[in-house]
TrEMBL record:
This is GGDEF domain-containing protein. Gene3D superfamilies: 3.30.70.270. Residues 29-109 form the GGDEF domain. It comes from Sideroxyarcus emersonii. It comes from the Bacteria.
Length: 161
């Protein structure tokens, strides 16, 4: 991951921790969206392009996402997973369509060979009631593991040659 990716990840995690603390302290009022984009079978990317080239292609997706969203929206990359934090969540369908278009377009450079799953979470939801001592990383892992039950919307972009 690039230096910019590490900085973006730190900023993202700090902001998410703060938002989770605020939602625990004040019930209601504050809403935000969280989108997860998972490039399935990232090992296939590494085997096809080599680890360095696959990482570079994933960096390009991160940069495309950062350029396409507002300054107040934070994009974080962790391996082949991308998270987008959106204060004051916009209409679900518009967000899903925007992310789907960006990911599909950014994937044209070779990442289309793997399935890409997109999950949209409107928070706070039941996941926000996770143990008060849970970190932002634990919260993200919980969402990723339970995305079928917790996501308000999901779409899968199939792999293509």
């Amino acid at each position: 991951m690039s230096h910019e990716d590490f900085e973006a990840r730190d900023k993202f995690l700090f902001t998410l921790e703060w938002l989770l603390a605020v939602t625990k302290r004040y019930s209601g009022g504050l809403q935000f969206g969280l989108a997860h984009i998972n490039f399935e079978t990232s090992r296939l990317l590494g085997e096809t392009y080599g680890a360095q080239k696959a990482a570079q292609k994933l960096d390009e997706v991160a940069h495309s996402l950062r350029r396409s969203f507002r300054k107040t929206d934070l994009v974080s990359r962790e391996g082949a997973d991308f998270w987008i934090l959106l204060p004051f969540a916009p209409a679900e369908e518009k967000l899903l369509d925007k992310i789907k278009y960006i990911v599909d377009t950014a994937s044209e450079s070779g990442l289309q060979i793997v399935e890409r799953d997109i999950s949209i979470f409107l928070l706070p939801n039941d996941a926000a009631k996770l143990d008060a001592s849970a970190t932002a990383l634990e919260f993200l892992a919980y969402l990723k593991k339970n995305h079928i039950d917790l996501a308000s919307n999901e779409v899968s972009l199939p792999a293509r040659e």
